[in-house]
């Protein structure tokens, strides 16, 4: 059983003032959007003809490569361009398809189409409406690319909710590095004590915020269990749906 304590019983004002959201996999349903986009390409480019007989398996391979490559990108081992083309090339290669032309075409089309997709996690807009109404200032800190992330926000109708959108490109840093959080606080004219980070990835959003002295809400859309950070500690709060955040903020 968990207890929640009001640490500031004498203060009638809100504990937090500035809320920093992650975008991909937290509000914007990256997996569903990527799947829909790849399925469209699978049909458009007739990948079945090339020997990729099972879309679901192809998609799984893509996800696996994408995740590994993103990890390498975050660590600075590879550049943006390599991450983008390689996830296509490697997913094709898993089916014995060596075709640089198709890989390049998929890469371009995918990058054009993906940001126009609009699938959000349930309760995204309701939550953001609720938080704005309560007087919080909302911001984004995202490791995505500047142009891509702004397109996603425009197409999915989220752009107007956020006062500041901090991307890795714009800040010259990446979560979980402390510099991007310092930059975000400065842009938002916020203090770490009155801020909270809300995101899905423990090693990136949660660890990064914690390291920068900012409280965190881990949004775990994947399992129904609280997961510890690599040092054995936990996020300030864990939720399993966006709706649960209403109980915290
Ligand atoms: Mg994320």
Structure description:
By secondary structure, this protein is of the alpha/beta class. The protein has two domains: 139 residues, Rossmann fold; 87 residues, Putative phosphatase, domain 2 (DNA polymerase, domain 1), CATH 1.10.150.240. Helices cover 43% and strands 11% of the residues. The chain has a six-stranded parallel beta sheet, with helices on both faces. Helix 1 crosses helix 4, helix 2 packs antiparallel against helix 3 and helix 3 crosses helix 4. The chain binds magnesium ion. The site of magnesium ion (MG) has 7 residues, from loops.
Q: Main β-sheet, in a few words?
A: 6 strands, parallel
Question: Residue-averaged pLDDT, rounded?
Answer: 93
Please give the count of helices: 9
Low-confidence stretches: none
Based on CA atoms alone, the radius of gyration comes out at: 19 Å
């Amino acid at each position: 059983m968990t207890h929640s304590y009001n640490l500031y019983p004498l203060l009638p004002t809100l504990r937090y003032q500035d809320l920093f959201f992650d975008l991909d996999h937290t509000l914007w349903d990256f997996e569903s959007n990527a799947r829909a986009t790849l399925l469209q390409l699978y049909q458009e480019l007739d990948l079945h003809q090339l020997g990729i007989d099972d879309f679901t398996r192809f998609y799984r391979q893509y996800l696996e490569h994408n995740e590994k490559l993103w990890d390498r990108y975050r660590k600075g081992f590879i550049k943006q361009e390599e991450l983008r083309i390689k996830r296509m090339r490697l997913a094709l290669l898993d089916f014995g398809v060596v075709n640089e032309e198709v890989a390049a075409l998929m890469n371009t089309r995918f990058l054009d189409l993906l940001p126009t997709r609009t699938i959000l996690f349930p309760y995204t807009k309701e939550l953001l409406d609720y938080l704005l109404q309560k007087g919080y200032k909302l911001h984004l800190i995202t490791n995505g690319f500047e142009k891509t992330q702004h397109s996603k926000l425009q197409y999915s109708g989220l752009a107007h909710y956020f006062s500041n959108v901090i991307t890795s490109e714009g800040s010259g840093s990446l979560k979980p590095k402390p510099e991007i959080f310092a930059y975000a606080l400065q842009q938002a004219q916020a203090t770490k004590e009155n801020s909270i980070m809300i995101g899905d990835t423990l090693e990136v959003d949660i660890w990064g915020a914690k390291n920068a002295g900012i409280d965190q809400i881990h949004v775990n859309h994947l399992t129904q269990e609280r997961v510890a950070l690599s040092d054995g500690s936990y996020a300030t709060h864990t939720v399993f749906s966006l709706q649960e955040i209403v109980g915290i903020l």
